[in-house]
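fyi for ur records
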Amino acid sequence: MHYDLSYLKEPIYSDINKQAGNHVLQGTLSVTTYENGCILPCLQRNQIEYDYSGGVTDAEHLFVESSALHEMPCKVGGPYPASCKKSDQSVIYIGFLLPEWGNVITDSLKKLWFLHTPEAKSMILKGAQIAYVTFENRPVSQYQLELWELGGYDCGKWLHVTTPTQFKNVTVPDNSLIALPDDTRLFHSFFADEISRIKANVDKHVREAGLPLPTPHDIYLTRTRLKHNKDYNEIQIERLFEQRGYQVIAPEKLSVTAQIWLMMNCNNMVATEGSISHNAIFMSPKSKLVILQKANYMNGYQHVINAMADLDVTYIPAHHSTRASKDMPWAGPFYLYVTPELSRWCGICAPHSISPSLKPSYWKYRVKNIGFLLRIKLWLYLIVRKCIKYRRNNQTGPAD
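which gave:
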């Protein structure tokens, strides 16, 4: 893995530079079986609001920390009082699942290593089921199912737990992808094996089926086709790379197989930072990845992905995201444009990186909603009207 951080400034330069080291999780992974363990689905506080609580508790109602989505301090999952229905079934718990694509290709895979062990295979032959919970108790998406199937799993009979349930036994594997307190992620070789297995199955499926999938060498992954896009003005950057010969790809328009095939076969990929750049997990070693930053923050997932895929990575700021939350900058909203740094990387002249304050698209971003915009227009109209009236009154003197 190699990083080019020459386009960054402090403090983000130092934050990312600290992540450029080793991300391998050493040691062995283990599993623990909890007799009379209870699986708690995502807690619904009322008809429209959900809590992030959920996971596994033991027979003494103590929370099993390894059943949370993340380790501390960014843990998703936790205990809550519940009356559990009883089941004489034994289950293998594979996690608390989120629907975002970046979580699907990382967190939904990190406990599956256990299913390849003789112990798990023996348990399944004896009737153990695979169980999981999801955020807001949503059914898993089609792309989640397709990814599991590409991993070689027959997930049609897996159990989505939506009611607090006490099982005969609940077996909880360790995570093969973990988060440290400083937001650094580490991956175990078992997690890398999972990604390799998916890539091998994609390659086999495409070749055996004779699918006519394209293999462009240079691709730009865009979010401009999304209905609820938080990235303002990305179209400007998209057009820039399209003019430079990159094929523009909207990943959500493709099957999971096609997406992964593209990642496996491209030489150069450009994407904004976030779930869409996490697709780089399927790229080939030594491929080039350009990550366009959307705000002043560091995405912890991306660095472990860069390391595991062994990529040549360049980070470039491409934003003026003045409305992004300071507490949660990853939540946006974001304003993207061709910054001087991006112009320098592309080798183009400065006029392409005109100040955002001179762009109508930036002021559209600044205005939170159309109602506010209309109020601004009305306010300006009343001010102008008053100014005109005042000027007319002053210009008209008393009659002679």
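Residues 2-21+215-354 form a domain with the Rossmann fold fold (CATH 3.40.50). thats all i got for now
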